[in-house]
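re: ur msg from earlier - yeah i can do the 3-acetylpyridine adenine dinucleotide complex, just paste it... oh wait u already did. ok heres what im feeding in:
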Amino acid sequence: SAAQPQTSRPGGTPEELDVLIVGAGFAGLYQLDHLRRLGFRVALYEAGADLGGIWHWNCYPGARVDTYAQLYQYSREDLWRDWEYSELYPGWSELRDYFHYVDRKLDLSRDIRFGTRVTAAEFSSDLNRWIVQSGDGRVVRPRFLVMCTGFAAKPYLPEIAGLEEFGGAWHHTGLWPQGGLDLTGKRVGVIGTGASGVQVIQEAGRQAAHLTVFQRTPNLALPMRQRKLDHAEHERMKAHYPEWFALRSRTFAGFDYDMIPKNALEVSAAERRATYEALWEQGGFVPWLGTYQDMFSNEAANLTAYEFWRDTVRARIKDPTLAEKLAPTTPPHPFGVKRPCLEQWYYEVYNQSNVRLVDLNEDPIERVTRTGVRTRSGEHPLDILVMATGFDSLTGGLTAIGLRGTEGETLGQKWGRGVRAHLGMASAGFPNLLYIYGPQSPSAFCNGPTCAELQGEWVVACLEYLRRHDLTRIEATHAAEEDWRGHVQEMTETSLFPRARSWYMGANIPGKPRELLAYPGGLPMYLQKTRDCAEAGYSGFTLA
Ligand code: N01
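and the outut:
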């Protein structure tokens, strides 16, 4: 289709599409490009004003990716050949440049409707189509609905009394003002010390007149080892790209390295220490996803990693009381089962005299006032309050949309009793709805662009198969999704993941069912299962 999608105007006849894609991040753009090439009549709706998904919304100070540059892009040579990020861990602005570059190369925007949020969708069994409504009053009828809304499309704001009375500026990191907000010389408060909080805190530490950090759980942050990349280094790396990209599907988390095929306690204490030091030196996610294979299942093994982390970090913090709060003697939770983030100068920030850490466990927030935040110990005056409080992750972006299936309920109602999703991509009672990077797929444990491509490839092949066989309907069976749920639960029970109150477990959102929301079996096992399913003529699905 060469023209802007001719979606019907309010009151007109709804347009029929083969596929409606939702979300213009890595996954959605992959779908758009591939499906369009195959001749499907397709459009993409994006709530934001521009490309980039998460990188459109999360433009808070310090926002940058924590996958290294070489693997934070599409694996197609015609795209990587001419692209160079300036740093190993690029910031949000450069990531947006990358999306614009891809757009120029693949001419994607002409089939994207920006500023268009899907507000409701219902499957019509008569038409065998979705009837999709968007915020601008349009209705469109795609045969298939492919949701690419990512894992963090729904920001979470805890109920804190008085927030609306605050006289300064307050923002959630995931809904940061597009025009930016200058922290220079301001009294800044940050609630939350997840990956977003850590990144804002580092910048605020350098810019603000005074910084107050409200911490509930310390982040077990790892060294980023950020550096500039020049052309020569890009050329050296590009010689290896084909091999690195190929490796992704054979590693647990879709990177070009994997866990050490040994148990931590199998080796001597001296060897273990030398290994931890070497991993630390490499930095990034390597000390997390490239460490001993039993890290997420054996508590004693895990403790050795925690102790190494704790002692290494403590050496950077001057005040012993602060050191105990940031890197406690006993682990707040096992190492790595709550998402660690990457830091650059995070711990040094707390050595500054204008920075204060409030431990919410002993000094809880009572309310936000007109002039700041009041905790039990008193008032903290602020000009800017940053809510780095995370997301209703993995399910929230999908359940926030009123997706209504054939069994009388919405996806949100169904998943309110726990996620059911065959292969983490489709749910019974919701025919012709597929989602990428969703719950019970590798998602949170998989590098984003890797899964956008590898899960994306499966979805494209599935839609092609249906077309080739003149089929217009695909639906997961109840039995298949219960089996998949059981498979995920079985692996979860032998892991340490339930031991942290994390968004991986849905535990950050009051009332959300506690269950591991990402597939813990690793990418190779997941991909094998999706291949087996397709080769068996899409087992666990009913086709018609
Ligand atoms: O969100 P989070 P995030 N009172 O849920 C605290 C990715 N990401 O936006 O831990 C006080 O991790 C909460 O405390 P606790 C990455 O995958 C990547 O930071 O629940 N505090 C926690 O500290 C990441 O994991 C990048 O005790 C409250 C924080 O808010 C995911 O996105 C950058 C509270 C929320 O942390 C989400 O990260 C940013 C309350 N009522 C994000 N409620 C990079 O690529 C919550 N908190 C680098």
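cool cool. The two ends are 27 Å apart (CA to CA). ping me if u need the other ligands too
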